[in-house]
Amino acid sequence: MLNDSLKQLSQRLENKEISSVELTKEFLSRINKLNSQLNAFITVDEERSLEQARVADQKITAGTATPLTGIPVAQKDIFCTEGWLTTCGSKMLSNFVSPYDAGVIERFKAVGAVNIGKTNMDEFAMGSSNETSFYGPVKNPWDSHAVPGGSSGGSACAVAARMAPVATGTDTGGSIRQPAALCGISGIKPTYGTVSRYGMIAFASSLDQGGPMAKSAEDLALMLNVMVGFDARDSTSLQCEAEDYARDLETPLSGLRIGLPKEYFAEGMNGDVERAVDKALEEYRKLGAETIEVSLPNSPLSIPVYYVLAPAEASSNLSRFDGVRYGYRAESYRNLEEMYRKTRAEGFGAEVKRRILIGTYVLSHGYYDAYYLQAQKVRRLIAQDFKQAFTQCDVIMGPTAPTVAFDIGEKSSDPVQMYLSDIYTSAASLAGLPGMSIPVGFGEKSRPVGLHIIGNYFSESLMLNVAHQYQQATDWHQKMPNL
Amino acid sequence: MQWEVVIGLEVHAQLSTQSKIFSGASTAYGAKANAQASIVDLALPGVLPVLNRGAVERAIKFGLAIGAKINSPSIFARKNYFYPDLPKGYQISQYELPIVEGGDIQIQSEGVDKNIRLTRAHLEEDAGKSLHEDFHGMSGIDLNRAGTPLLEIVSEPDLRSSTEAVAYAKTLHALVRWIGICDGNMQEGSFRCDANVSIRPSGSETLGTRCEIKNLNSFRFLEKAIDFEIERQIDILEDGGVIRQETRLYDADKHETRVMRSKEDANDYRYFPDPDLLPVEIDSAWMTQLKKTLPELPHVKRERYAAEFGLSAYDASILTGSREIADYFEATVKLLPAHAKQCANWIMGEISARLNKADMAITSCPVTPEKLVELLAKINDGTISSKAAKVVFDSLWSDEMEQNIDAIIDGKGLKQISDDGAIEQQIDAVLAENQQLITDYRNGKEKAFNALVGRVMKATQGKANPAQVSAMLKKKLSSGTAG
């Protein structure tokens, strides 16, 4: 049952083979068994989860169930959840119990999904390895020496280790896709503006986007059906018609044009990753797709652009954590300035401070034009590249990350190396395009490799179709680590 | 040396919306501390701003009223600094592309008309309040005011004296109330001024170093603070010193300005476009619709009063001092179109004196425009004298039970004597007793004639129609029938 798809679990619940309470207990016991070694969850609250399961069971009995009713969902600890500790992986919020629900949490509640726990993450979503969490690193379930990727590393680990059937993540420059790739699961970051950011603790507002993480594209589709929707409380939320993301899953791929950016296949990609990606592309050709070379000439600039814009927004977004109203406050201080200084020095970790400093610098008087403004211009060029490419192809493919999961500690002292983990994912974030990762095999040390699929705006249904057809023909997505 | 004073004003007008500019919390004044601070105002993690349309509409109306350019798109920017009453660590304001740019305001200072150019007016949120008393060594924070919509109206340095500055501030104050975008309540902080003051040798074209005086919450303080500041700067320069650019605070008790912060301690606010808010697009249909809701503006009314009713510039400006006074005047003159000047005189004289004495607004004037017109008609048809009308007016004002003008005239015996025979009798009696005055008059002493009229009036206890008396007397004296 741990390996069941959402559809199968939902069927079992509907047939009364199992109740939501029983299903929830099943996953809670799996969490109990594995979390001490994997550290995927920051907060587990059995009573609250079971209470939600009981409500779900009533819904099922009443016949008002929908596909996610009674299904345990692991929630990234970036989503404010009423009555739950919501830490964002930081000491700064280590005592923050949210008095309100994020828009995404409300939507899961409304359909009767069960919150199975809050997952570990890089502090304030800043990291690609989950090593920056105040709550300690998450282990990769395929290899406990390896990182799970980040920042949604806890969610990726939880799904890969079958501690939850599905999870939520957020992606600013690759934070759903890269950990999905490194943990051998599927994850999608939808078009910017489709999932409400209300109650999702902000890292870089113009890039942050919530999305689901799951074993398969089919599960992602059912999750998106719940997560996507207009929210008037988020001014960047898009008012688009509700759609069923599962509707196109079964469409054959004959005639599909897959664009392969020559820049992605040039250098920097490890041989093992390249082999797995090539094999996946071969599979797509077998499925009737054709591959064509496209060019994203400005994409090599996406990392520098990202590391100007994201820290700039972050430096301002994180100003509210000042110890005045909630969260951590330094214990002793002599005056206001010292309270600020000590609170923020003690409450934030090194990576967060680094980015606040970078962001403060690039927005400073005299530097703004050279950094922030320039980066905004290049951001538009990056988006134009994609626009051009999508005149030639339907989806773009490449590796999600340049390497398989690296070892814990391997890159933590070299921020630039760490930042390069997002080299393939950040461009789509800058353009606001949807991007996803699906597992396509294993590389070095038998660690998973992910295939990156970038679609045009609002083409999530097509992307899920493309991923689902591959998953119908292969079984990489069903592989499960030995734990 | 002769010095020229150069002043520019920044006015913060609180916009009269029911809710805050970025949250649904109430803006009502005087609630219990923090009772009107929503989770958005508290800047909890994950909350987002949603722009209040009403605040934008008020800003547009202001722009239309002063003939300014309305920018579309208009951009919200973050102004970053730390202060405990600034919950997000940044204020949402506007920097580049403010909603209103340019425009003019005509003022009258010491009888001279002057045009004052406006630089811009932009929307922003107010901060909260720090309370330094009553907390035993700690400070309290009240966030009720945080997020209150403000329009910051910035003038060009076109003002040349404290008198002009006050005239400008008063005109602006009247205008924002006139168009209904701000209640103008200065005690409650709805209309606050900062003054930028500098001096330069007369004839110089270059601006001197300026000092900004903060938070002047009455016209009197504005005038006094500027005068103090001018003296201070003249003293420094005439002693061979230099003015330092700084922000100063006016202390009304000590009547002085003192340093708040110097330019060196000024924050680098790191303005950048707020990624949580979309650019505001204002189309011409919206502007047209708002234009229709604008009342006839004071300067248009002034010109119309002069052209239509032949009123002096002075009268017209008094009658357009507020929309309520103008409404009263127009209601009156509509019923008595041939006697506009008389209506104006009564409103500016009798009514205004009474209202001032009772500290009442014209909207609660016990004598309605209809009653006033009825009373004036009694003067104009000769029933009572102007003097007697004031007695009737007093009665109407103070006795709300007796509003029948005829009954009041009868009751008080105020009816004017217009019967030629009765008046002639009195004239004859007076002439018979005042030979000397007749002689004086005939010797060319005009005063003697007035004295004779006075005596006839006295003999009739003031009830005779003075014009009639005068005419008959003149006739008698010239026909030689007298004496």
Please outline what is shown here.
The complex is a heterodimer of chains A (483) and B (483). Chain A is an alpha/beta fold and 483 residues long.
Tags for this entry?
heterodimer, A: about 475 residues, alpha/beta, Amidase signature (AS) enzymes, 15 helices, 11 strands, about 40% helix, about 15% strand, globular, B: about 475 residues, alpha+beta, ten-stranded mixed beta sheet, three-stranded antiparallel beta sheet, about 20% strand, elongated
Can you describe what's shown?
The complex is a heterodimer of chains A (483) and B (483). Chain A has 483 residues and is an alpha/beta fold. Chain A has a domain at 6-255: Amidase signature (AS) domain (Amidase signature (AS) enzymes, Alpha-Beta Complex), CATH 3.90.1300.10. Chain A contains 15 helices and eleven strands. Chain A has an eleven-stranded mixed β-sheet with strand order 1-3-2-4-6-5-10-11-9-7-8, with helices on both faces. In chain A, helix 7 (217-227) packs antiparallel against helix 15 (460-473). Chain A is globular. Chain B is of the alpha+beta class and 483 residues long. Chain B contains 15 helices and 15 strands. Chain B has helices spanning 53-65, 162-178, 219-238, 284-293, 298-309, 313-319, 323-335, 340-358, 369-380, 386-398, 405-412, 420-433, 435-442, 446-459, 466-479, and strands at 3-14, 69-70, 77-80, 90-93, 100-101, 104-109, 112-125, 129-131, 140-142, 149-155, 191-201, 211-216, 246-251, 256-262, 272-273. In chain B, the strands form three sheets. In chain B, strands 1, 2, 5, 6, 7, 10, 11, 12, 13 and 14 form a ten-stranded mixed β-sheet that branches. A three-stranded antiparallel β-sheet of chain B has the order 4-3-15, with no helix packed on it. A two-stranded antiparallel ribbon of chain B has the order 8-9. In chain B, strand 13 and strand 14 form a beta hairpin. Chain B is elongated and about 95 Å long. Chain B starts with a strand and ends with a helix. In chain B, 39% of the residues are buried. Chain A binds chain B through residues 79-80, 86, 88, 93, 96, 98-100, 102, 197-202, 204-206, 232-236, 312-313, 315-316, 318-322, 324-326, 336, 340, 360, 363-365, 368, 372, and chain B through 39, 42-51, 78, 80, 82, 84, 87-90, 141, 268, 270-272, 275-278.
